[in-house]
Amino acid sequence: MPDSRLSTLRRPTLRESITGAVAAAGVVAVCASSAVSVADNSVPSRIALIADQQPVAEQAQAAQPAPEPAVEAVAAALPAPEAAPLVEQAEMRAATAFYPDNLHGWISQALDVMHANGIPGSYESIHRNIMRESTGNPRAINLYDSNAAAGIPSKGLLQVIDPTFAKFHVPGTPFDVWDPVANIVAACNYAAHTYGSMDNVHGAY
Questions:
Q1: C-alpha distances out from residue 160 to 18, 83, 179, Å
Q2: Which parts of the sequence belong to the Transglycosylase SLT domain (predicted)?
């Protein structure tokens, strides 16, 4: 005799069975999609993505211009300039130094030129002879002595006649007997050849 409790159970209808099957299929699809998403985000996938991007980064780095050599390296590779001779260096210092436009400045500049050219003479001796010959006036001229009578008057600070100035003029100074520095240097050059040095001149020369 059949159990009376089993008679109370109802069999599902066809619609209910189909609905249950569709729901189960949806759950399976969602699980499968999640599995694929996790697989795409896995470590091997990220390594593959980085490997694919690596050649692009290397190409971009290779395309960058090489850095220019440092200024210090370029300067070190250049040849060192040759030093000017000592006489030329002294003449350049004399030409660029500042000298006051007065008797002290003229003597100081003349001494620098003289030392650069090996012409002896001291500040004291030059100043002493200038004060005797012209009292420090670079435009002084003697129109009364034998030189003046011969048409070649003595001129300038150290009363130099034109032929003497032309013969003993020192290159690097103006070729002008009235120029105070050129006058001093030419006179000291003449004194060096005639008396040994302007230091030895104590009267008319």
A1: 138, 36, 11
A2: 130-200
